[in-house]
Design brief:
The complex is a heterodimer of chains A (114) and B (149).
Chain A (H helix, E strand, L loop, with lengths): L13 E4 L3 H7 L4 E5 L4 H9 L4 E4 L7 H10 L3 E3 L4 H10 L5 H10 L5
Parallel strand pairs in A: 1-2, 2-3, 3-4
Helix pairs in contact in A: 1-2, 2-3
Chain B lengths: L2 H8 L2 E8 L9 H13 L3 H22 L2 E8 L2 E8 L7 H4 L9 H5 L7 H8 L2 E6 L5 E8 L1
Antiparallel strand pairs in B: 1-2, 2-3, 3-5, 4-5
The chains are: A alpha/beta (114), B alpha+beta (149).
């Protein structure tokens, strides 16, 4: 937990793993967590622009102070994990989070079982 | 164009001009966030804010990466936002190609920063209701996007 701890009470149900910021904008839906190995100011801005709930940096990457400040101002929680991208996504999936494909289907068809 | 659209164009009000500094990656995206913040304070709904923010962000990134700097102009009319993002850069040589997903002229440096996926103009098209791009080799570029609430 590196920033935005005040916003940690929000519930997260979906996540998007990507190192390509324009792909994030193309495929993102609001209300998801961004999982990325990219560390630069645009990651914070992209996540903010796309309406994401937070950013998880993988492979032990950590944002610098300027990025942390930016995230605090945007109310965006930042987290870091030593896990690689695949393992981090796997862990989140096992924890119940789903991806953008699932979220798109959900928004188009409504919740399953209805 | 439907009469309702014409009426809205007449009622278009200029809100603010935002300068965009070319090749300044540290600041890139800050104009879009300023626009999003402004519209949020005005009371725009979240989904509209998202579409405007993505449109502005991709257009801003293009000005930073390829346009050598420029500006974003924000206009508002009842039920609509117009964004005009322009630069005096080299212009887009082949607009049809540039509109294709995945097609990109990004440098390696840009790709290392996570950009250059070739989704910029397609993302603008997907998130706006009316899009007009004026450009050509040596002519600079003007991107005019309108987003309905």
């Amino acid at each position: 937990m590196l920033a935005g701890s005040r916003a940690l009470d929000r519930e997260v149900t979906h996540a998007q793993g990507s190192d390509l910021m324009s792909d994030v904008l193309a495929f993102s839906q609001p209300g998801a967590l961004l999982v990325t190995g990219l560390v630069n100011p645009q990651v914070i801005r992209t996540a903010d622009v796309a309406g994401m709930l937070g950013v998880v940096f993988v492979r032990g990457k950590r944002p610098d102070q300027a990025m942390i400040q930016m995230a605090e101002e945007a109310g965006l929680p930042l987290l870091s994990t030593r896990l690689g991208m695949f393992d981090a996504c796997g862990a989140l999936y096992q924890g119940g989070l789903r991806g953008m494909t699932h979220l798109t289907r959900l928004r188009e068809n409504g919740p399953p079982g209805r | 164009m439907a009469p309702r659209d014409d009426n809205r164009q007449d009622r278009l009000q200029f809100v603010q001009a935002f300068p965009i500094k070319g090749d300044d990656f540290a600041a890139a995206g800050s104009v879009s966030l300023a626009i999003k913040k402004l519209l949020k304070e005005v009371g725009f709904p979240p989904e509209t804010l998202r579409r405007v923010a993505i449109t502005a962000f991709e257009a801003e990134m293009n000005v930073v990466m390829y346009g050598g700097g420029g500006e974003a102009l924000l206009y508002m009319a009842p039920g609509m936002v117009r964004l005009v993002v322009r630069d005096q850069g080299p212009g887009i040589e082949n607009l049809e190609l540039a509109m294709q997903e995945g097609w990109s002229t990004a440098t390696d440096t840009m790709r290392e920063m996570g950009f250059g996926a070739g989704m910029g103009l397609p993302n603008i098209k997907k998130n706006s209701d009316r899009l007009d791009i004026q450009t050509g080799p040596g002519r600079g570029t003007i991107v005019q996007a309108e987003i309905d609430i």
